[in-house]
Amino acid sequence: MSGLKLAWIKFSRDRLAFSGFLIVFSLLLVAVFAGLLAPYPEDVFGIHPAERLQPPSLRHYLGTDSMGRDIFSRLLFGARVTLVISIIAVGSSLLIGVPLGLVAGYFENWFSELIMRIADIFLSIPQVILAIFLAQSFGPSIQSVILALSITYWPWFTRIVFAETRALKKTAFIEATEALGASTLRTILLHVPPNVSSSIIVRSSIGMGFTILTAATLGFLGVGAQPPTPEWGVTIAESREYLPDAWWYATFPGLAIFVVVMGFNMLGDGLRDILDPRIRRGFE
Fold first, then answer.
1. Is the distance from CB of 224 to CB of 142 less than 8 angstroms?
2. How far is CA 206 from CA 1, 157, 195, 225, in A?
3. Which of 147, 233, 249, 280 could link 239 by a cystine bridge, Cβ 3.0 to 4.6 Å?
4. Which fold, 3-37+63-283?
5. Sign of the CA dihedral 72, 78, 80, 82?
6. Does residue 1 register a pLDDT over 60?
7. Where are the alpha helices (H) located in 109-141, listed in sequence order?
8. Tens digits of residue pLDDT in 191-227
9. Given pLDDT bands bounded at 50, 70 and 90, which one contains residue 3?
10. How many angstroms separate the CA atoms of 16 and 24, rounded?
11. 64: three-class secondary structure by DSSP
12. Residue 64 pairs with which residues in a beta bridge?
């Protein structure tokens, strides 16, 4: 049996990991087809005073908000906003953190030390606090959220890739590659990345969930996405003055954040078990 098939069998048998995969896959489908799935797509930015703060019913499955907009429709479009923010932020962090980690891990000089000391400075500050400061400095907007999350998350990838690269550099196959005359650039670009990709994939999956939670926090505090953007954190912030009477206003966006973040965490744990070489050897 091929290694890929064995990995899929192991993954499908892990109920938590497979449940996380289903949640993430559902989020992707919802984000792509929000316009088709939403019962009231015009309610994303519409205003209907006569329908304001209606409880869940057959007409409005999750109720309406203070503007009379259908919460279920806004949650579906909010999934698109959330996914775009997290994908761009994590992708940008990858583009910054992975190359820096490769360079710092492969070379042992002052530049490597400088990279890691800068990364340590960022890691010493709680990411949420630093992201709030940066987002506020840039001005409240989705672009500010993406930029703040990218700036604060890249050191995690740098630290992981640095540790993996530094360990790989001392292995026999890297020494053999160098002995055969391969250039340093070729070794860094072609031989090291495939051997650290598993850690990067796991960190990216977990980072997606953490980024979604942080983006919602920034929106809730008013330094992220701004109304009437259907972002989940913004929706919860708008609901504060109507609690506890309009309980559905904050409950369902909060549940959406909880389920999605949990799904990414469960998926990350499952990928870690599958991609760990020591675990794979148990199936050979």
1. yes
2. 29, 12, 19, 22
3. 249
4. MetI-like fold (1.10.3720)
5. negative
6. no
7. 110-124, 127-138
8. 788 888 888 888 898 899 999 999 999 999 888 888 8
9. low
10. 12
11. strand
12. 70
Q: Which tens digits make up the pLDDT trace of 5-40? A: 776 777 777 788 889 899 999 999 999 999 899 998
Read off the DSSP letter of residue 188: I
- Rounded CA-CA distance 56/269 in Å is 35
Q: What share of the chain is helix, strand, coil (3-state, %, to 5)?
A: 80, 0, 20
Give the HSE-up count for residue 110: Cα atoms under 13 Å, Cβ half-sphere.
Answer: 0
At 165, list the tokens: 């690269």
Q: Residue ranges of the domains in the chain?
A: 3-37+63-283
Give the other-Cβ count within 10 Å of 182's Cβ.
14
Counting Cβ atoms within 10 Å, is residue 278 exposed (0-12), middle (13-18) or buried (19+)? Answer: exposed
From residue 48, alpha-carbon distances to 37, 65, 70, 240 in Å are 20, 10, 10, 20
Dihedral sign for Cα 203, 206, 208, 213, please. Answer: negative
Nearest CA to 71 among 253, 282, 227? Answer: 253
Contact call for residues 158 and 190 (beta carbons, < 8 A):
no
Specify the DSSP class assigned to residue 199. Answer: H
Cα 27 to Cα 80, 95, 230, 259: the distances in Å are: 8, 24, 15, 10
DSSP of 167-187: HHTTSHHHHHHHHTT--HHHI
Tell me the C-alpha distance between 150 and 207, whole Å: 11
Q: Are the C-beta atoms of 103 and 96 separated by less than 8 Å?
A: no
